[in-house]
Here is the input.
Amino acid sequence: MSELRIYNTLTREKEIFKPLNAPHVGMYVCGPTLYSYAHLGNCRTFLSFDVVFRYLKHLGYKVRYVRNITDVGHLESDADEGEDKIAKRARLEKLEPMEIVQLYAVDFHHVLEQLNLLPPSIEPTASGHIIEQIEMTKKIMENGLAYEVDGTVYFDVEKFAKTFPYTQLSGRKLDELLEGTRDNLEGQDEKRGRLDFALWKKAKPEHIMRWPSPWGEGFPGWHIECSAMSTKYLGDEFDIHGGGMDLIPTHHTNEIAQHAACHHKSPAKIWMHTNMLTVNGQKMSKSLGNSFLPQELFEGKHKLLERGYSPMVVRFFMLQAHYRSTLDFSNAALQASEKGFHRLMNAVKLIPNLKTSETSSFSFEKLKTEVYHALNDDFNTPVAIAALFEGVRIINSANDGKDSITAADKEQLQKLFGEIVFDVLGLKQEGAGNSDKVEGLMNLILELRKDVRAKKDFATSDKIRDELLKVGIQVKDGKDGVSWTIN
Ligand code: AMP
Ligand code: ZN
Here is the structure.
């Protein structure tokens, strides 16, 4: 079996994965800023890391997966300008900042559960780690790489860059970054350099979220929370740090700088970045006005949508692109995914009932090798799915009596599909998760419906379908059989 290789943004190479303390693996992923509902693009990033988490566990690693919640310090622009996103929302809606975060956190967790993401091992909040952030800021100051101006503490990027490759992650040239920004220094005279960023911000009198610090009342900068929390839970060097690609130039570059200012190295060995979900080629983003919510997609309630798609179809749609490629949203692509998903799931259902023979007319080992080869190649889910579809073809053909399968291969096939489709890709049969009673009732109703159809009593068959729809259960008659979902 091939070894797992992961593309490392830091070295720009696919590296053989060797955990620092096998079998333990530490992974940190930048979580959401909960000032509004998470959109489908955000979900794509977390879903990609869910597959990483699941596959590492499948390989036998004991993974501590930390994904934070940003509930303070993320300003409107990445360049430390504007109001705190959550404080602003709280002010506008006349709510406590914690009420805002709670509202969106409940929704965020619900959506990720619908998409069948596993919860992370630890989900720390920035506001719960103010002391750790102050301590880290103090250490950076002691090391001479930060300075205070009137209650705000800035990281001195140019000084730091003299001893550490500040732009290693982004691959940009420091000179060009400085050139590009020097003209804008006007109005920024608090900072010594335009690239400097805040570790701690002085709170204006009207600012709601504020804590005492050695520099007066204030609140932490955005980047320092991830540095403080990743170190606290994963140590000063851990295996994987992840997030969306848009975080590379500022947030992650500054996270590395803060960490290196304390520990003289990058916090993580491997930096993984997911590519964007796009709409007509443009990044899905709240500010561009082209974003929609997962719930709108499930229910088909958005002007870009022709109809709704179930959470598992959406998950399958996302898995059909590699995490480092962009994925463009379209109705046609989702419809194709829906067909593929049902074909795959129907094949999985057929395996236990396949008739076995003395010989197999296919090579199970070849199929298995192809699946693992793809997943070991930087979690290449689309290639793994293509290999699984070769298995689907074999299953369907064995079911039709055109291909043959031995009892041993059948058992192996069931194990492979069970582990890869359910455990690693995180798909589940639609309707799974409903109680056994609901499953049992639906099986009975659809069985009876099959009987009346066999008698050509289509009026009763349609009545069953229509009445089920009225109570929110959608029955679909597809080429590969009947499926149902609870809306
Ligand atoms: P935010 O709440 O804006 O901090 O974003 C949470 C995560 O979602 C970050 O890792 C972003 O990189 C990621 N993200 C934002 N927009 C998209 C998108 N259109 N496609 C994929 N990931 C995204
Ligand atoms: Zn972060």
